[in-house]
Sequence to fold (391 residues):
Amino acid sequence: MGATGSIGRSTLDVVARHPDRFHVVAVTANSKVDELAALTVQCRAGFAAIADASLATALRERLRRLGSDAKVLSGSAGLLEVATLETVDAVMAAIVGAAGLAPTLAAARAGKRLLLANKEALVMAGPIFMDIVREHKVLLLPIDSEHNAIFQCLPASLNGQGPETRGVRRILLTGSGGPFRARARSELQNVTPDEACAHPTWAMGRKISVDSATMMNKGLEIIEAHWLFGAPAEAIQVVIHPQSVVHSMVEYIDGSVIAQMGNPDMRTPISQALAYPERMDAGVGALDLFSIGTLNFEQPDFNRFPALRLAYWALAQGGSAPAIMNAANEIAVAAFLRGAIGFLDVVTIIEDTLAVLPVTPLRELGDVMAADSEARAEANRAVDRRARSAA
Ligand code: NAD
Ligand code: MG
Fold:
């Protein structure tokens, strides 16, 4: 799911290296008809699902011209259908943002092995998401490089339900610091979307690239780590590590610190999760420690990157706070990417939205969706106010 994206393409690259092990049942995209059709043919998928239902006919025609007889599905129902097909064993959840929540949960309810890149889904619906994972005994494998690293630094549990976390003192969540790690706040308001998306160590989709620049990505990852590993906020320490070689660490009560290292290439975590508990070639070159030479570690700066503080706050509030934060972030990032607001306005809009909306408990999925849509509406109003005052 999200085959045309950065994670989607890396996944198909890994899968194509192992035709003996994997067969692609279905691929999905939001609206890129030509790219989705080309990928469908390339990986011989039997199903292609397009979220924008108005493009189903165009996709069908394009596939016919390419000589493919893949079945076309569309809309949210189409995404849910491919996520739960009988012939599917594993689902790569790589749709960006809240749009991925429903198909990701559908895959979990169907008991599929779930490879989770779509961190926003877990952030917004944490307790409900994890209840479904437990209830349906889902093998949940994190794809986010940090969480995949933490997973690899933990022993497998005896009951097969998530990794064993007894004896852990802290999770050391590394982050490169993004493209503006060394910039003063005063230099940031006028940076362009392209500058914000020019990540020093990772090539990624534009939304997560902006998240990395504001460090909201690390904020989302704090909440993601909380749900995946049951770690309280005070046991999750963000560590700035500009080289992106150590992908995260686990500190144990006996003083041991175990790190997972590798080149910054998402094909490593993707491959780890696809092959788990085995290992297979990911097409990633060996880590050249001699050319890297030095690894640096720094304290995160909460004043220059207030998104980190907001995320800890939202996690402490619990309930709908992370969903509100996530939704406001999605609206603000989209507004920044289309040039409607400045870079520093992104986090201000999230703060304003969190300040206005009450935090409510999450009892069922409807509560999550209500918080998400209210926060989107409120954040859109905040974007309009900023855009008007700047004009
Ligand atoms: P991307 O923008 O490159 O791709 C997003 C994919 O989602 C595309 O296939 C797009 O068609 C699909 N999509 C977008 N909106 C949709 C909608 N409304 N309905 C259905 N499909 C929709 O993004 P990406 O960088 O591949 O990131 C995907 C997810 O993985 C995000 O949640 C991101 O946080 C996470 N992630 C990415 C990386 C990375 O290296 N790119 C690393 C860690 C985590
Ligand atoms: Mg990450």
In short: Residues 2-8, 29-30, 32, 51, 94-96, 99, 117-120, 144, 202, 204-205, 207-208, 266 surround nicotinamide-adenine-dinucleotide (ligand 1) (CB under 6 Å). The beta strands are 26-29, 47-50, 71-74, 90-93, 113-116, 140-142, 168-175, 236-240, 246-252, 257-261.
